[in-house]
Amino acid sequence: MNISITQLGPCFAGEVTGVDLRDALSPEAVATIEAGMDRYAVLVFRGQDINDEQQLAFFRNFGKVESSIGGNITKLGQRRLGVDFADVSNLDENHQVYARDDRRRLFNLGNRLWHSDSSFRATPAKYSLLSARSLPENGPNTEFADMRAAYDALDPEIQAEVEDLVCEHSLLYSRGLLGFTDFTDEERETFTPVRQVLVRDHPVTGRRSLFLASHAGTIVGWPMAEGRIFLRDLIEHATEPRFVYVHQWQIHDLVIWDNRQTMHRVRRFNETADPGMSAAPRLPATAQTHDTGECHMNDQRHPPLLGYTDRFSARPGESVQVKVSSYLEGEFQAHLVRIICADPNPEGTGIVERGVDGGFVGSFPARAQPFIPGSCMKADLPSGVQLPEAFSVSAMIWPTRLEAGDQSVLSITSENGDAALTLGLDDSGPTQADAANGRWDLERRGSDRCTEERQWVRLWASVSLKTGEITVGCGRAEEQETASSQVKGATALATEAMERVLVAASDHGGRQRHFNGKIEGPAINGALLGWDDFRSPSSGNQGRSLPNGIFPGTSPVSGFTIPARTPSTVCDQLSRPGYDRLMLERVGDVLAARTGPVRCHPFSRRRYLRF
What we know:
This protein is mainly beta. The protein has nine helices and 40 strands.
């Protein structure tokens, strides 16, 4: 098999020869076609007289086929084809041409708008494939726009403006442009808008492109009217003739295109009289799964490379150590990158990042270390560690779901398995502390309530084992105003031996009470502290910080250390999306893992490393 590709369009699109898609492809042939997709974004295969099974067999060389459920208004009992196909023909389940007023036909008119397939899904389509089994007498043509060239041709000022923008995509938006608003409640729920970044980098070539579609109806943070007219301007720019390849269909043409780099649309034809083309299966963009069970890196039940930092935060200019653990042999590389969008959900938008000069790029040897992944941070303590007679526990938090029930910020557990002291929130938001013999809640005081969603507050609990007194409090600073409250009580907490400290959850009776939000600077201090102490910290408080969830006096979880420095720019409050974080990638193999993002913290104007 001698495959060759010849360019068709002005700047992209290629015609593939030397391959019969009825036959199984060799790995070399698949690699050649994928490389052609990376370069040309649209590939045309002429004279491919194939059936559904052969079409799917060819397509599965490049990934898992996307289900068409949720991408149209056709009911399961009305489908002409299986769920692996997005039926873009003008035929109903009985192979009859749609009536002119059939709502399925009216809905499908949206294919005449410029779009990228499945941008309305949390995981957009990677490739789409269309096979011309039958054609109408006159047309239709399909037009493809090169979104890479369109981005390159933008003025530098516009490139800077679109850099960090995020759009909401939905079939409700694109069909609404046509005046089609006849949706059922179930359909409206199915077509709930999803967010996609406006500028994407190709995962192989690194080439930047615009991610546009008629499905994009708003720009997050912009007035709707301004966002829509700006998106319309961008689509008009991206679909100028110099960026467009027009495919004139022939019988048995097969066309495959990369939705990450192109937009497309079908042109008008008399679809009420002529049978249209068949169907287009789609590949979802690559998504990874996550295993959050407890394990060791070297038992290979966890992703092969993990990075984690030795502290929760750092001021500009301070040093941060990055610990790395891997059961692979060889080396990894370290980079600093800025996160434009960070969604770890396998079905979500994904991660979009830009490189930053971190001053420490290099290769380091990999080695396996014990590690416990998950949505909380655990630190086992040396045997015999006891609570001091007077101590305080505290943390800064940024809660996101106060209605989620009891949530633990920091929990100290004794050797007998009891949670000796837990600091957290209850389901209405006030601070709470739990000990073996009681619970203390701050009263909710209307507008004076100091715990709110998406605002930084400090929680603390001070305990005197000698007097049996406990004080629980919280405080919030907003500009020049301060809100704080506290409650006092009595506890029988004893100086018993402690076994572990857990951040962001409690493990009394099983891992539970997970915290929703961000936690900064959890600490255990060997002194009784209050709100005034936290507002004006004293160097004499014998602070015992838990920067990485490790109780003072213990050895941190081992790993290979990368000395790193945070960017020197001091943050103002967050005015636009953006994160910085350390990225670790395997040299040779394309297995990558990354640490948490660095975020600007408006409470104290610091930069923070987040998991």
